[in-house]
Amino acid sequence: MRVLVTGAAGFIGSHVCELFLKEGHEVIGLDDLSTGSERNVSSLAANPKFRFVQADIRHRESIGQYFEGVDWVLHLAGRSDIVPSIEQPTDYYDVNVSGTLNVLEAARRHGAKRFIYTASSSCYGIPDVYPTPESAPVKPEYPYALTKAMGEQLVMHWAKVYQLPALSLRLFNVYGPRSRTNGAYGAVFGVFLAQRLKGLPVTIVGDGEQTRDFTFVSDVARAFLAAAQSSLSGEIFNVGSGNHYSINRLVDLLDCERTYIPKRPGEPDCTFADTRAIREQLEWAPRTTFEEGVNAMLGCINDWASAPVWTSESIAEATRTWFNHLGREA
To answer: Which ranges carry the NAD-dependent epimerase/dehydratase domain (predicted)?
Structure first.
């Protein structure tokens, strides 16, 4: 198949490109390089079936040319992180909502046979049920989660009204090699690995007993492959590890000293995906244990040698907007 991957130079997108090429597909990787890095796909450049194009999904007219003759569209491009979404909501809307509309329309106009959307488990907010099924209420707590949920609504509506064969994958706490090493305060692995490299205690939010459904990136890439190969449409699937792990357990595996910082509003005490639907309908299951995944991260820890090193003080300053808008002052 001829596959177009938006967000190809990003963390997850680069792994998706790698897997689809390995499976023999032709891949067009599209990215504006605003947050992704061309280095993430540099190793693919020698593959004659790979083509990288720098383009911005906010520019509807300019991206259409790249969809001509494409069979499958995998839409991974988007803005992430909580604090920037609170501070820059219009940018998040422009990319995650309007950008998704532009990609959808390009796919529809050029007759794509499959459309796979990258949704976020943050849409559940603070769930009432664990493991959380796809039928749980959508209750976004901040603009990032809201805009990703709005993008998903567009995709499901296009599947219904325009018969565009589409699926949505709600990803839970993805981690692995090539995850972001710079930018805003965000994903726990990057924060902890940079701190560990500098011999600093890792900054644990709250008491560390909160759990996350850490899902390894290679398993996530295989979920995209299973979704693209299926004949289903109009369905939403959780993509999770099949378990959940405390932050304290992560720190035990990283073998670090620790310090504790205040718990933040709008964050769940647990994320834990009910993955029965994707296991049964797409015959997908995770393969990487948490221990294996953490070892893989330690194996590439030097990638974070020049990453920002967050401290309790700098985190408090970086998350001040979060506290102010989501419930209490920092």
So the answer is: 3-240
d(CA 127, CA 132): 7
Question: Hey, what domains does the chain have and what are their CATH numbers?
Answer: 2-174+214-239 (3.40.50.720), 176-212+244-270+288-326 (3.90.25)
Q: What is the pLDDT of residue 318?
A: 87
Q: Quick one: pLDDT at residue 35? A: 87
Question: Mean pLDDT by 10-residue block, N- to C-terminus, for the chain (330 residues)?
Answer: 98 98 98 91 94 97 97 97 93 98 98 98 97 98 97 98 98 95 83 95 96 98 98 98 97 96 91 98 98 97 92 91 72
Q: Which of the following is catalytic: 66, 92, 142, 144? A: 144
Active site residue 130: no
What is the C-alpha to C-alpha distance for residues 232 and 29, in angstroms, rounded to an integer?
24
| Cα(117)–Cα(20) distance, integer angstroms | 16
Half-sphere exposure at residue 219, Cβ-oriented, CA atoms within 13 angstroms: 28
The Cα-based distances of 53 to 48, 65, 118, 164, 309 in angstroms read 14, 11, 20, 24, 32
Hey, what are 196's tokens? 């560990």
Cut 0.90: pTM above it: yes
Residues 6+ apart with CB under 8 A from 161: none
Query: 3-state DSSP helix/strand/coil percent for the chain, to nearest 5?
Result: 45, 15, 40
Residue 212 CA from chain centroid, whole number: 14
Integer-rounded Cα Rg, in Å, for the chain is 19
